[in-house]
Amino acid sequence: MNRHIIAVAALAVAAGLATGLPAGAQEAKTYPEPAGFDAAAKTSWSKVKPDEWKTRIETDETQRLCNLYRNNPPPDVARKIMEMNRATVVYPADGQVIGDWKKGQALANNGRGGQFSDEPNTVNGGNCYACHQLDPKEVSFGTLGPSLTGYGKARDFSPDAAKEAYAKIYNAQAAFACTNMPRFGATRFLSEQQMKDAVALLFSRDSPVNK
């Protein structure tokens, strides 16, 4: 073996012994540094006007805690996050959480909205298929979230389950702390009617989701 390679390897081992770590290992940081994260976020939008897109670069308490624990909070913090977000859920005044499943299907297939290239009056979509399987005949879907095929049928089309689904769509953090699912209602990304239509896609007996 080349003497140079042996010497380099010996130095690496010695360095590992000196630090109490295996050669090549790095000391892991338990949490990210909030100050560094905030600085990186703000410099990413350095050319915007004062207060423009402010809500995009300033984290709320939920996001702060999820960042702090890298989306894996301890049980007590997870409970705090869910309690905070349950308090934000606003149910429809008419008491109805189920809309039109056909419009819900269109919503699930629509990934537009919230992008810099979209026109100002672009209607936001839910882009549900990016993360979930819904219609079992649809072959293009993401797997970041669980399959929702047969969702309403599996819950006997229960009104209480439909109301629970509305709450999850409105603010998923109310049910799953540090989930990747957007807070569609809490951030006003989707309208009340759009969320009703999404619930209809899951709970209508005629919906392809339940066929």
From TrEMBL:
Gene3D superfamilies: Cytochrome c-like domain. Keywords: Heme, Iron, Metal-binding, Signal. The keyword Signal applies. GO terms for molecular function: electron transfer activity; heme binding; metal ion binding. Residues 99-206 form the Cytochrome c domain. Residues 1-25 form the signal peptide. InterPro entries: Cyt_c-like_dom (IPR009056), Cyt_c-like_dom_sf (IPR036909), Thiosulf_SoxX (IPR030999), Thiosulf_SoxX_II (IPR016823). This is Sulfur oxidation c-type cytochrome SoxX. It comes from Prosthecodimorpha staleyi.
